[in-house]
Design brief:
The protein is of the alpha/beta class. 46% of the residues lie in helices and 16% in strands. The chain folds into three domains: 139 residues, no CATH class; 58 residues, 2-Layer Sandwich (Alpha-Beta Plaits), CATH 3.30.70.1170; 185 residues, 3-Layer(aba) Sandwich (Rossmann fold), CATH 3.40.50.
Length: 427
C-alpha cells in the first residue's frame, strides 16, 4: 500500500496543490469517484490485478484529478478491500460483480462507517435498512465482521487461540506513516526538527530507535529532505530486522532478497558506509530502483547481483560475516498496508512459499563464514513460515548452527506490522 500511496504523492507536482486559504471546501464528485472505485475493485477482486497496478491505471486515466480526489479514492479502495467479506455479505454479493452489486457494497461501506450516503441515483433503489440489519447481525461472527477468509481464520485460531481476535482486529487498523532516519546524513533529533519546520507533527518510538512516526499522514515525498536522502518510509518493525542482525563497519554482508532495497540501505547506514554489501534480487527493475535509492541515500558500499544462478552463491561460500535472509513470504503480517493479500493468497500457495523459504535457507546459509551471523525474517504471522522453518533448519543443519534468539512482533502489541526474526550463529 505504501507503493500506491507513494504513487499518489510523487505525482502531486503535476497537479495544482490546493491552498486552504483560497480554495473552497473539498466536495467530492461521488458519481465520478464511484465509477472509478468500481473499476479498481473489479480489477483487484475479480481480475487478480495487483492493487498498486490497478490504482496506477485509474490514476493515469484521470490526470486532471486533484490530490484530495486521488487520496479519497485510495483510502476508500483500501477500506472496502480490507472489509470486503463483511461488506459483500451485507450487500448479498457472491461471485458476480455487476454495477448494481457495486453500489450495494458502496452503500454498505457508508453505513459501516456511519456516514451519510451521497445523493447518487443508484442508491435510490437500495434497501439500506436491510444492509444495516445484516451488518448488525454479523457483528457476532468474527471471521465475517473482521473480514477474513475461512482458512485464514481457522489457521489464526489454531495458532493463537483467544489472542487471534486481537491480532485480527489489529491487522485491520489503518497503518501509521513511519519514517526511517538515514543516519548517514542526519540524526533522529535533527529529522524531527526538520519535519516540524514543514509543520509535520511527529513522535519517536522507544522500541525502534531510527523510527519517526508522523501524527498525521502527509506527503513527505515532495520534501527536499526526502530528495536529499535524509529518510525513507519504512515500517518500524521492519527496521528492527537490521538492528537484530547488528552488522558492524568493515564487514561483508549479504542481503539475499533485497527487493527495492529498504533494508539494504539501512544495512549501509548501520555499517557507517564501511565494508561491503552484496544485494541479491530476482528482478532487474527492483535492483535499478535500489541503485537509485542508494545514490539518494549516499550508500556507496552496495553491490547488486541478479539472483538467477546457484553458481554465484557457491562462489561466495564461507565469505560473509552476516547474512540477512528476509525471505519471500505470505506477507500476512503486513495486512494493514496490503489488505488485498487476504483475498489474493490461497491456502495451497502457502506450501509453495514454505518450500521456497527452505530452499533459500539451504542456498544462502553456506555463504556465512565460521562464527558469522544470519537473521532469518518473515513479515508473516504464521509459525509455518517462521518458527517451524527454523526448527526444520536446525533439525537438518544443527551441527553447523546455533540459535541465539528469536523475536516475534505482534501487530496487536506494537501497532505495526507483524514480524518474526531469528538470529543464528555458524559454529
Amino acid at each position: 500500500m505504501i507503493a500506491a500511496f507513494s504513487y499518489l504523492c510523487h505525482n502531486q507536482h503535476k497537479m495544482k496543490i490546493e491552498n486552504k486559504k483560497t480554495s473552497p471546501k473539498f466536495k467530492p464528485d461521488y458519481k465520478v469517484l464511484a465509477k472509478n472505485l468500481a473499476l479498481v475493485l473489479n480489477l483487484v477482486m475479480f481480475e487478480g490485478m495487483h492493487f498498486d497496478k490497478a490504482l496506477e491505471k485509474i490514476m493515469k486515466a484521470n490526470k486532471k484529478w486533484g490530490v484530495k480526489d486521488r487520496t479519497l479514492l485510495f483510502e476508500t479502495c483500501t477500506g472496502i478491500i480490507r472489509y470486503w467479506r463483511l461488506l459483500a455479505t451485507a450487500a448479498e454479493i457472491d461471485k458476480t460483480f455487476k454495477e448494481s452489486d457495486f453500489y450495494r457494497i458502496y452503500a454498505a461501506w457508508f453505513i459501516f462507517k456511519n456516514k451519510e450516503l451521497p445523493r447518487l441515483p443508484a442508491f435510490k433503489d437500495i434497501n439500506t435498512d436491510k444492509i444495516e440489519l445484516r451488518l448488525t447481525k454479523y457483528k457476532k461472527i468474527s471471521k465475517i465482521w473482521n473480514s477474513y477468509p475461512d482458512w485464514l481464520d481457522d489457521v489464526g485460531r489454531k495458532q493463537y487461540g483467544v489472542l487471534w481476535e486481537k491480532i485480527a482486529l489489529a491487522l485491520n487498523q489503518e497503518p501509521k506513516m513511519v519514517l526511517r532516519t538515514n543516519t548517514l546524513k542526519t540524526s533522529v533529533q535533527k529529522l524531527q526538527e526538520i519535519l516540524l519546520t514543514h509543520r509535520i507533527e511527529n513522535n519517536t518510538l522507544t522500541w525502534s530507535p531510527w523510527a519517526v512516526e508522523l501524527v498525521y499522514r502527509r506527503n513527505v515525498f515532495r520534501l527536499p529532505e526526502f530528495k536529499e536522502g535524509l529518510f525513507e518510509v519504512q515500517d518500524p518493525v521492519s527496521q528492527m530486522v537490521v538492528h537484530f542482525l547488528n552488522p558492524q563497519p568493515g564487514m561483508r554482508v549479504i542481503d539475499a532478497h533485497a527487493g527495492n532495497g529498504g533494508k539494504t540501505l539501512q544495512l549501509a547506514a548501520f555499517m557507517k558506509n564501511k565494508g561491503r554489501i552484496i544485494a541479491f534480487e530476482n528482478q532487474t527493475q527492483h535492483l535499478e530502483e535500489l541503485k537509485k535509492r542508494a545514490r539518494r541515500a549516499g550508500a556507496t558500499i552496495i553491490e547488486t547481483k541478479i539472483n538467477d544462478s546457484t553458481k554465484t552463491t557457491k562462489r561466495l561460500a564461507n565469505s560473509a560475516d552476516c547474512l540477512l535472509l528476509d525471505v519471500p513470504c505470505s506477507g500476512l503480517g503486513a495486512l494493514r498496508r496490503h489488505p488485498f493479500l487476504k483475498w489474493k493468497l490461497k491456502e495451497k500457495e502457502l506450501q509453495e512459499l514454505i518450500t521456497q523459504q527452505q530452499k533459500s535457507l539451504e542456498r544462502f546459509a553456506p555463504t556465512v563464514k565460521s562464527g558469522g551471523r544470519m537473521v532469518y525474517a518473515t513479515c508473516s504471522i504464521l509459525s509455518t513460515e517462521s518458527e517451524d522453518q527454523i526448527k526444520w533448519f536446525l533439525e537438518k543443519y544443527g551441527h553447523d548452527w546455533v540459535l541465539e534468539g528469536e523475536k516475534r512482533y505482534s501487530p496487536a502489541q506494537f501497532d505495526a506490522d507483524g514480524y518474526y526474526m531469528a538470529l543464528l550463529t555458524k559454529k
